[in-house]
Amino acid sequence: MTLAAAHPGFLSPTGVEIAFLLVGLATFGAALVTVTTKQLVHAALWLVVTLGGLAVEYLLLTAEFIAWVQVLIYVGSVVVLLLFGLMLTKAPIGRSPDADSGNRWAALVVAVAAAAALVWVVVDAFRTTWIDLDGAAAGSTAVTGASLFQNWVLPFEALSVLLLAALVGAIVLSRKAKADAAAPQVPEARGEQAAEEGAR
Amino acid sequence: MTTTTYAVLVPLLPFLGAVAGLLLGRTAPGFVRPLAVLPTLASLVLTVLVAAGQGGGRAVDAATQLTPTGSVPIELALHIDGFAALVAVLVGVVATCVQLYSTGYLRDDARYPSYAALVSLFTSAMLLVVYSGDLIVLLVGWEVMGICSYFLVGHYWETPQARAASLKAFLVTKLGDVPFLIGLFALAGDAGSFRVTTVLGAVASGHLHHPTLVALLLLAGVAGKSAQFPLHSWLPDAMAGPTPVSALIHAATMVAAGVYFVARLLPVFQASSAAMVVLAVMAAVTMAGSALAALAQDDIKRVLAYSTIGQLGYMTGALAVGDRGAAVFHLLSHGAFKALLFLAAGVVIHAAGTNSLAAMSRMGNLRDRVPDAYWTMTVALLALAAIPPFSGFFSKETVLGAAEHVATGHTGHAPGAAGWIVLVAGLVTALLTAAYAMRLWLLAFRGRGADAPGHGRQPVVMNAVLWVLAVPSLAFGGLAFRVLPDWFDGRSLAPALTTSVLGTGLAVAGGVLAYGAWRHTTALAARAPLGAVAAHPEADAGLVESEAIASHEPAYGDIAYAPDPADPGRLLLGPLHRHAAAGFHLDTVYAALFVRPVTAGASLVRFLDREVVETYVRGAGALPRLLGAAVRRAQTGNVQTYVSALLAGTVVLAVAAVLVATGA
Amino acid sequence: MHLVYPAVLSALLFCTGLYGVLARRNAILVLMSVELMLNAVNLNLVAFDVWLSKAARETLHSGQALTLFTIAIAAAEIGIGLAIVLAVHRNRGTSDIDRLRDAAEGPGDGSDDSDGSDSAAATAPGAEKAEATA
């Protein structure tokens, strides 16, 4: 951990590392496709791949509970929610040429610069740090549950309040106001928008 | 009440009258005429009382210091000697006459209240100059006169000539006043006081360190105020003002102030023989040049203006030969007959409806139309031409006698060269003066042709004033030359035989020459019809005059000149005539020397300001504008752009922080 | 296992999500990218937690606890975010982020802004009512 010589070198990967790297590459590729694809629904589906890949990475890091929670919440509900959102906003099926805004090149520069900076710093700092994955799993359900209900009870309960608030807020925000239906302009505007999108 | 109290009241009364006139002019028009005439009249009475109290004896001196003013004290001081007392009487007489005359002359003028108030203020300032025993107080009066002359010359400000003339009068006199002020300070610096008596005492004891410098600086101011060459050019143009103002400026105030100032401080000038010679040359050039110019003028008032310049030349000539008694004597008699000449000319202009001599020479019966003006003007012209026994003869002979006295070396207080210069120039001018007086008289009153258009009767008050002034013009010289030496320096003012004979002979010769020329040319007058007459013959005199001034230039092509072949001046002067009419092109010279460089400099400055400085300013503004445009373009409303910039900045900061932390 | 691998993967995923947030036009795709960024952080938290707990430096498992909290909050966030996007879409007729330019400099500076501002003006009362009901 502190002495590089005590651990396998950088270029002598273990089997776990090879697996981690391969899954990591797949995850990263899926993430790239997610943010670059021109088909909106495909983006959601590639997001599923990314999140699933991440769940595998959690497993490889022996964080079992987090991995299953990841699968349950992200892959199971969040992506479904996103797909619903896409459909509710009448997102076009198929390739949409304007999926990316004009800000793309600036975004690319910022992202590459941030990535370079982060990777440089991280590699520079943890080049030789070694995680010993042998022994009992660090994130088994028993361990996580014990930690959560021994040390993190109060935040855990507070989180439930936050979830309740989010639930109420989401309902209020998404509920269709009664006056909206009476306003004549809104359906027209929506119709124009639909016509425009259809033209595209 | 003492003489001092009277003397304090003399300048104060017209000043209060002026203030009251300005305040009440709008609300109570009925009070304007009494407020104009009565304070001036009262101050005339008081000047007479002061003169009687002073009686030609010791000078009355009184001084009070209002507040300490540093190392050189300024005091409210009176210094009344014989000169001051008599000049004040002259100012009072002329001012009263002018105020009375103006009530008739500007009868219907809408701006009469302010006009009368300004005349009162003018009078008050001149009386202050005359009585003041402190040079700074004198300067106050001196400058107030300058500003009053600006307003009064510009009384007909609707005409461009009047506007230009008032500006010119103001600027030219101010041009002289700047060195005058410096000279006053230099004088006071040497003498340690602004009091006239102290200054004269310092001069007598030889404490004056730079007499030539001080005298020449003061001379510049005197030349500006008294219209001496080369600063005389404002005076002929000042004829664009109303005739009573011309009479006031020419006879008693303003131009007299310069001569009076030199007379009062004559020892200062005598301390420098160079200054005396300069004064003599200035007087000679002024005399001869102005007399030539007067012979060529077409405007009757411009003839009189040039004659004033010439007569002032006599006075400065007398001062140049160190005889201030002669100078002030001529100032007094000239004040009387020149006021009369101007006021009579006002009547003539009103009657004829024009100020052009060429047009008057084609009117048949002008003499019968204005008999009062005819007779009084004849008297005044004879006085001007110095024909005995009129008053001009005696005063002018004193001047010539004094010059001859110096030229022949009988005195040591003035350089002999100055005497010769003044004597020769004076004799030549005597000839020319008689010639142009004769020409004026012949052209104005001996015209032949159609009758002048009717203009109604002249106001009685105007004619009465003419006769009042005719008395001193006729008799003042003959009566006074025996009495005046008691009031002045004590030197005899009686005419000397040689100069009397010479001067009178030349004057008669000039008159005969002019008459002969006129006989020769008058036949041509009928062949060359000419003339323009004011459009409103029934209006009051002021309106007629302003219309005559405004129409002279369009009618004849020049303000001073008329293409009249019947003009005897044209025959007498020959090829000089055109140059003389233009005042020997002095204005052109000024334009080339001063006006054009100043205009060029102004346009250069304007160019620098508009093109160079402004470019820098615009350039300085361009960068912020560019920045503003760039920043505004950044405000697209696109949140993603904002976040991009934010994160880019964060990355840069984070990298910088890491670099600093690792000491790279 | 080297800590560098999960850390670098986390950094790369984070920047990918960053690019998506900055470059995507559709608001729902932006939300997806936000999820990516959150997951990158989660990976980081888990990796460091595993490293630190194995090294017995820290036994609270705070990394895993925080990961769970992040997942929960992300779920709440995605719910609220979608609700907002739906509300905007209902009022404006679009969920394109670069058409929501109410924060832009005054009128007359954008060239393609005319139709957007028109529709914004036309739907302004609706927006106000939606805000009032919210």
UniProtKB/TrEMBL annotation, chain A:
<protein>
    <recommendedName>
        <fullName>NADH-quinone oxidoreductase subunit J</fullName>
        <ecNumber>7.1.1.-</ecNumber>
    </recommendedName>
</protein>
<feature type="transmembrane region" description="Helical">
    <location>
        <begin position="152"/>
        <end position="173"/>
    </location>
</feature>
<keyword id="KW-0472">Membrane</keyword>
<dbReference type="GO" id="GO:0008137">
    <property type="term" value="F:NADH dehydrogenase (ubiquinone) activity"/>
</dbReference>
<comment type="function">
    <text>NDH-1 shuttles electrons from NADH, via FMN and iron-sulfur (Fe-S) centers, to quinones in the respiratory chain. Couples the redox reaction to proton translocation (for every two electrons transferred, four hydrogen ions are translocated across the cytoplasmic membrane), and thus conserves the redox energy in a proton gradient.</text>
</comment>
<keyword id="KW-1133">Transmembrane helix</keyword>
<comment type="similarity">
    <text>Belongs to the complex I subunit 6 family.</text>
</comment>
<feature type="transmembrane region" description="Helical">
    <location>
        <begin position="105"/>
        <end position="123"/>
    </location>
</feature>
<dbReference type="InterPro" id="IPR042106">
    <property type="entry name" value="Nuo/plastoQ_OxRdtase_6_NuoJ"/>
</dbReference>
<dbReference type="InterPro" id="IPR001457">
    <property type="entry name" value="NADH_UbQ/plastoQ_OxRdtase_su6"/>
</dbReference>
<feature type="transmembrane region" description="Helical">
    <location>
        <begin position="43"/>
        <end position="61"/>
    </location>
</feature>
<feature type="transmembrane region" description="Helical">
    <location>
        <begin position="18"/>
        <end position="36"/>
    </location>
</feature>
<dbReference type="Pfam" id="PF00499">
    <property type="entry name" value="Oxidored_q3"/>
</dbReference>
<keyword id="KW-0874">Quinone</keyword>
<dbReference type="GO" id="GO:0048038">
    <property type="term" value="F:quinone binding"/>
</dbReference>
TrEMBL record, chain B:
<feature type="domain" description="NADH:quinone oxidoreductase/Mrp antiporter transmembrane">
    <location>
        <begin position="132"/>
        <end position="403"/>
    </location>
</feature>
<feature type="transmembrane region" description="Helical">
    <location>
        <begin position="76"/>
        <end position="100"/>
    </location>
</feature>
<dbReference type="GO" id="GO:0042773">
    <property type="term" value="P:ATP synthesis coupled electron transport"/>
</dbReference>
<keyword id="KW-0560">Oxidoreductase</keyword>
<feature type="transmembrane region" description="Helical">
    <location>
        <begin position="136"/>
        <end position="157"/>
    </location>
</feature>
<dbReference type="InterPro" id="IPR001516">
    <property type="entry name" value="Proton_antipo_N"/>
</dbReference>
<feature type="transmembrane region" description="Helical">
    <location>
        <begin position="275"/>
        <end position="296"/>
    </location>
</feature>
<feature type="transmembrane region" description="Helical">
    <location>
        <begin position="208"/>
        <end position="224"/>
    </location>
</feature>
<feature type="transmembrane region" description="Helical">
    <location>
        <begin position="36"/>
        <end position="56"/>
    </location>
</feature>
<dbReference type="Pfam" id="PF00361">
    <property type="entry name" value="Proton_antipo_M"/>
</dbReference>
<feature type="domain" description="NADH-Ubiquinone oxidoreductase (complex I) chain 5 N-terminal">
    <location>
        <begin position="68"/>
        <end position="115"/>
    </location>
</feature>
<feature type="transmembrane region" description="Helical">
    <location>
        <begin position="417"/>
        <end position="443"/>
    </location>
</feature>
<protein>
    <submittedName>
        <fullName>NADH-quinone oxidoreductase subunit L</fullName>
        <ecNumber>1.6.5.-</ecNumber>
    </submittedName>
</protein>
<feature type="transmembrane region" description="Helical">
    <location>
        <begin position="642"/>
        <end position="661"/>
    </location>
</feature>
<feature type="transmembrane region" description="Helical">
    <location>
        <begin position="245"/>
        <end position="263"/>
    </location>
</feature>
UniProtKB/TrEMBL annotation, chain C:
<keyword id="KW-0560">Oxidoreductase</keyword>
<comment type="subunit">
    <text>NDH-1 is composed of 14 different subunits. Subunits NuoA, H, J, K, L, M, N constitute the membrane sector of the complex.</text>
</comment>
<protein>
    <recommendedName>
        <fullName>NADH-quinone oxidoreductase subunit K</fullName>
        <ecNumber>7.1.1.-</ecNumber>
    </recommendedName>
</protein>
<comment type="similarity">
    <text>Belongs to the complex I subunit 4L family.</text>
</comment>
<keyword id="KW-1133">Transmembrane helix</keyword>
<feature type="transmembrane region" description="Helical">
    <location>
        <begin position="66"/>
        <end position="89"/>
    </location>
</feature>
<dbReference type="GO" id="GO:0048038">
    <property type="term" value="F:quinone binding"/>
</dbReference>
<comment type="function">
    <text>NDH-1 shuttles electrons from NADH, via FMN and iron-sulfur (Fe-S) centers, to quinones in the respiratory chain. The immediate electron acceptor for the enzyme in this species is believed to be a menaquinone. Couples the redox reaction to proton translocation (for every two electrons transferred, four hydrogen ions are translocated across the cytoplasmic membrane), and thus conserves the redox energy in a proton gradient.</text>
</comment>
<dbReference type="GO" id="GO:0050136">
    <property type="term" value="F:NADH dehydrogenase (quinone) (non-electrogenic) activity"/>
</dbReference>
<feature type="region of interest" description="Disordered">
    <location>
        <begin position="98"/>
        <end position="134"/>
    </location>
</feature>
<keyword id="KW-1278">Translocase</keyword>
<feature type="compositionally biased region" description="Low complexity">
    <location>
        <begin position="117"/>
        <end position="127"/>
    </location>
</feature>
<keyword id="KW-0472">Membrane</keyword>
<keyword id="KW-1003">Cell membrane</keyword>
<dbReference type="GO" id="GO:0030964">
    <property type="term" value="C:NADH dehydrogenase complex"/>
</dbReference>
